[in-house]
Amino acid sequence: MQGNTHIVGGITASLAFAQFSNDNPLVLVGAGVIGALLPDICHRGSKIGRTFPLIAKLVNTIFGHRSFTHSLLFLFLVGMLLHTFIPYKSITLGILLGMASHVFLDMGTKKGVKLFFPVSIAVRLPLTTKTGSKVEKVVFMLLTMLSVFFSYEIIVKLIDTI
Q1: What is the pLDDT of residues 24-63, one digit of tens each?
Q2: Is 137 helix (H, G, I), strand (E, B) or coil?
Q3: Distances from the Cα of 34 to the Cα of 25, 39, 144, angstroms
Q4: Residues in contact with 93: Cβ distance below 8 Å, sequence separation at least 6, in sequence order
Q5: What predicted TM-score, i.e. pTM, was given to this entire model?
Q6: Please, what's the b/e burial string for 85-116 (b: 16 or more CB within 10 A of its CB; e: otherwise)?
Q7: In percent, how much of the chain has pLDDT > 70?
Q8: Are 95 and 78 in contact (CB under 8 A)?
Q9: What is the C-alpha to C-alpha distance for residues 49 and 77, in angstroms, rounded to an integer?
Q10: What number of other Cβ atoms are within 10 A of residue 61's Cβ?
Q11: Measured between alpha carbons, how far is 122 from 50 in angstroms, rounded to an integer?
């Protein structure tokens, strides 16, 4: 999936979680966007890879693309680091939600992800598409509509409390 689809995926996941959470939705969404981009630190052409090219090159050289940074192990390790060093739970949750949405969306591509790294089995969803395809554009549109819906729900709840 492309960066914009991952960003909207992170926003959607964060807003969906905010529906039943007491966490600040703005913090969740901001952190969710960061988390949605983080797994592609293994790809120098990605949004985050272009921002941190030396780190992206190093990670790609060691692990390759869609392996370690797209795994449950990476999600767990980042979660542990965030829990240890970031005192604000909403930031940690948002980043992890964004990362999880990224991995899930990439499971919808033909190459899949190495979800159980270091095991080299690629995990894919039953229906897959090519990155940048018309199907991805439909996914982007559906995620955008869900984000608008969840935003509306949060705004209505906020107005009801006033």
Answers
A1: 999 999 999 999 999 999 999 999 999 999 999 999 999 9
A2: helix
A3: 14, 10, 17
A4: 17, 21, 23, 28, 31
A5: 0.92
A6: eeeeebbbbbbbbbbbbbbebbbbbeebbbbe
A7: 100
A8: yes
A9: 20
A10: 9
A11: 25
Distance between terminal CA atoms of the chain? Answer: 40
- Tell me the C-alpha distance between 26 and 71, whole Å: 26
Contact 131, 68 (CB under 8 A): no
> Each residue of 109-157: pLDDT tens digit?
999 999 999 999 999 999 999 988 999 999 999 999 999 999 998 888 7
Size of the chain in residues: 162
Of the chain, the percentage scoring pLDDT greater than 90 comes to: 88
CA distances from 41 to 51, 125, 144 (A): 9, 22, 24
| pLDDT given at position 91 | 97
